[in-house]
Amino acid sequence: MSPTLKIAAGSLLVGLIVLGLKLMAWWMTGSVALLSDALESTVNLATAFAALVAIRIAARPADANHPFGHHKAEFFSAVLEGVMIIVAALFILRAAWDGFQSPRALDAPIEGLLVNGLATVLNAVWAAVLVRQGGRLKSPALVADGRHLWADVVTSAGVAVGVLLALATGWWVLDPLLAALVALNILWSGSRVVKQSLSGLMDEAVPDATLAEIRHVIATEAGGAVEAHDLRTRHAGSATFVEFHLVVPGEMSVFDAHEICDRVEAAIGRAVPETRVTIHVEPEHKSKHSGIVVLD
């Protein structure tokens, strides 16, 4: 099993433990805010499962029907997770509205907060693992899952503040009020996840820093060529696709041109791991004098 799959499977286990703790906290207190927090965690389980399935699909090698691989499956999962975050926020808003209608004192609030706090700490640690490892492994599904858990951590913190304020003041309406405010923050978080995932589905170019690195590699490693132009990039899951035209002297042999291409391709692969490079070789009269100038 790949490291990405192991982490995704771990999310399912963590999600089950956290959901159990939060349901226990709600059962102990009767807090609508803690119930909302538990509802949000049920979405964590669903999205962790979706991420696991997507990562398994994305790991499949290219085939006749998918010659560029299955990398974009992770983006579909990330979009689903963003939508599920928004759905969770709507559930919380509904539960908060019910709490506004009939606020009530809580049972065993301190004990419930301690149990919920344990779940929050576990979520925070695992969210950090997902975001860090997802970035290292170039897995948008893991990163989206980590951001989803961070939204859950923010929810839990807001809920704890609301319950403590309600306990200190006797204003039990603060319990649903804080739940509603945190739900708005979750809506914003979910919209960001959807937006970033859609950029991958729309073949958005790599970040400017990565593009600059690729241009630098071409300029310094393509010795013997004249220039490179029409550079295009896109990313799909852990894979980065790079295409450009490489202009070489007209009298250069096919063997020598191929040697340059191999050298550039290997250098780009070292600078940007898991890169698929496509180079179209052209004779010197095709120069556009507007692309990447190859340094001697």
TrEMBL record:
It is found in: Cell membrane. Residues 207-284 form the Cation efflux protein cytoplasmic domain. One of its GO terms (molecular function) is ferrous iron transmembrane transporter activity. InterPro entries: Cation_efflux, Cation_efflux_CTD, Cation_efflux_CTD_sf, Cation_efflux_TM, Cation_efflux_TMD_sf, CDF_Transporter. One of its GO terms (cellular component) is plasma membrane. It is a multi-pass membrane protein. Keywords: Cell membrane, Membrane, Transmembrane, Transmembrane helix, Transport. One of its GO terms (biological process) is intracellular zinc ion homeostasis. The chain crosses the membrane at residues 7-29, 41-59, 75-97, 109-129, 149-171. It holds the Pfam family Cation_efflux. Residues 11-202 form the Cation efflux protein transmembrane domain. The keyword Transmembrane applies. Belongs to the cation diffusion facilitator (CDF) transporter (TC 2.A.4) family. This is Protein p34. It comes from Jannaschia seohaensis.
